[in-house]
Amino acid sequence: MTVVVHAQGAIVHMHNDCPASSADCQANGGVSRVPALVAMSPIAYRGSSVAELNVRGAREKMSNTSIRLSRQGSVRLLLSVLGAGVVLLAAASAVGASTFERRPVLFVHGFESAGSNFASQAMRFESNGYPPSWVAEIDYNSTAAVGNKSEVDKQIDEAIATLKQRTGSSQVDVIGHSEGTSVMYSYLTEGEQAAQRRASVARYVNVDGQEKNPGVPTLALWAGRCGDATCSKPERHMEGAENVTIPNQTHVQTSTSSQSFQQIYKFFRGGLPAHDIVPQKGKIMLAGKALEFPQNTGLIGDTVQIWPLNLNGARTTTTPLASIQITDGSTGGGAWGPVSARPGQRYEFVLLQPDGHTIHVYMEPFVRSDYAVRLLGSVPIQQYTGKSPKSSGAVMIRYKEYWGNQPGENDELLVNGLNVCTAGLCPWEKEVNAFFAFNWEGKEESTLNEDPVLSKPPFLQGAQVYVAGSSPPSATVSYQLNSRGGGGLRTLNAPNWEGVTDQTEIFWNDFESLSF
Amino acid sequence: MAIRDRKGSQKAGRQKPPFEVRDVVSAGMHTLVLEGELDMATAAELEAVIVECAESGSGLTMDLGQLTFMDSSGVRLLLFAQQACQANGAEFVVIPGPRQVQRVFEVTDLVKHLPFREPTS
């Protein structure tokens, strides 16, 4: 037996090259560590000031330059792979990819996520002329897929076949995020079906994930900020692809931002999109899935109810707008809807579970039809937010990380007026997308002490927040977000459900408020 | 740099380093014994060691039994190790950590999907 000592305590702090205490480093959002591939300049985009990215310092009027880069890159990759004695038939997909025609779009989410991660981008595609039936998201077991991708490969096969059949298109465009990029790399390069699968994918966007080129025309989007759970080095690059870094954005934000959408749309269509999310008036449609999270299996046996609410979060009708029994318990199942609804109206989505537990989901008023709504049941949510009797607990989710340690760029997340997104609980490096505010200490005081378990997994945070709960509810709880992106203070009020039997989920939009 | 076995690192009263990893090689199989606090800084350092072990192709065991702390970057490291071993055709095994570490895997459902195995001795 050989014993080798590789490292000792001295290695601690060696690689933390942008510590929270470094004001200069933080002021640059860590972007100073990234090669200067991009610069920002303001342009008018749907009436609001956003940023256009200048690749390698040269403003692109159209994306032809970048697309040429991508195609040349694919040739280089092909040559290098052939040199290694392996045949990659990238040419088949390159034919279709030479055009900027509209093709159906499929999104493959990342670790511990779901199709709702793509809801705002789907709305952007639909705001720019894509029919809803041309945009799809899979929901797969991302935890299982770390070790075994056979099930998710089958889901992708089925999703692409469905999109082709539905639209008459011979190819699709795919966007993978985080673990979804590893899933897509494996899907496109491994096994006997790899060449056939590549032929079905005209263009592919690899968002803040793995770095290997999958052999189809690829745009690699990178988050400018390199967080603890998702990024091992700030300089990431995919050989043979078009590489663009989105400055000052974190991992999940990069998958949902309008800045990323512009890059994705330009890569798919050859020009910038005309619109951001366009609000709709009159009737809208809502549809989605009820899923056990993070396995993403359909919540068979649950009943989904949708209730219209007033500003205080109280139901305004005696019967729900819709009541739907979930009958598909497969992975990616749990479908419900579409349900006709009104923009601007507040709704409560209820998951009535067979075991008597109820999850109450509150979302911001919808601005347009949303076919990617996900209602998430979860054992951890039940166990944690429902930990202490006579208390009300909630998880507040946003597909854009909460920042609490960036003065001037902080998110304020308030529960009954108390800001829980502090510098200690929501440092940007922690990449918090789901904040659990609940009574884990079992006392009638909001100490904001960090929950010892929920503070550790990727994307989560948990803190001691005491809100008196009651069954039936006896008071209103105010949940508020003052986003670093602007849009003013947003409020979702909800009854003080008693957490042991009734849990509260708050979903904040990952885009800022739009006016009607 | 001393070479110590697992018991040696447990001596009472000694000023323990925040983190230590030992690579125990037996019949070509690497066992990385992690001790102390596994966070972002230490996880980044460990990646190169994991790649080296995975590329040897003979197998890698990550022993979490002596960790006192693990955050989200530790989860990332375990997933990275699993993928590195898969890519190299190397067997991958995880020896469970103490309760506070295992609860992180329970919350994320990874307890079912990482190849946990109790230590053989």
Low-pLDDT runs of chain B: 1-14
Helix content of chain B: 25-40%
Low-confidence stretches of chain A: 1-94
Structural class, from secondary structure content of chain B?
A: alpha/beta
SS field, number of helical segments of chain B: 3
Major sheet attributes of chain A: 8 strands, mixed
Structural class of chain A: alpha/beta
Radius of gyration of chain A: 23 Å
Please provide the count of β strands of chain B. 4
Sum up the overall morphology of chain A in one term.
globular
Order of helices and strands of chain B: EEHEHEH
State the assembly state of the protein chains. Answer: heterodimer
**Major sheet of chain B:** 4 strands, mixed
Quote the beta fraction of chain B: 25-35%
Chain pair forming the biggest interface? A-B, 43 and 52 residues
Q: Distance N terminus to C terminus of chain A? A: 71 Å
Q: Tell the overall outline of chain B.
A: globular
- Whole-number mean pLDDT of chain B: 83
Strand order of the largest sheet of chain B: 1-2-3-4
Record the strand order, biggest sheet of chain A. Answer: 13-12-15-16-25-18-21-22
What is the strand content of chain A?
Answer: 25-35%
What order do the helices and strands come in, and which of them pair?
The complex is a heterodimer of chains A (516) and B (121).
Chain A: E1 2-7, H1 23-27, E2 38-45, E3 48-55, H2 64-83, H3 91-97, E4 105-108, H4 119-127, E5 135-138, H5 150-167, E6 172-177, H6 179-189, H7 194-200, E7 201-207, E8 218-223, E9 242-246, H8 253-256, H9 258-269, E10 284-292, E11 297-298, E12 303-309, E13 322-325, E14 335-341, E15 346-352, E16 358-363, E17 370-377, H10 379-385, E18 394-402, E19 412-415, E20 418-419, E21 432-438, E22 460-464, E23 476-482, E24 489-495, E25 502-507
Parallel strand pairs in A: 4-5, 4-6, 6-7, 7-8, 8-9, 10-17, 16-25, 18-25, 21-22
Antiparallel strand pairs in A: 2-3, 10-11, 10-14, 12-13, 12-15, 15-16, 18-21, 19-20, 19-23, 23-24
Helix pairs in contact in A: 6-7
Chain B: E1 19-26, E2 29-38, H1 40-55, E3 60-70, H2 72-88, E4 92-95, H3 99-107
Parallel strand pairs in B: 2-3, 3-4
Antiparallel strand pairs in B: 1-2
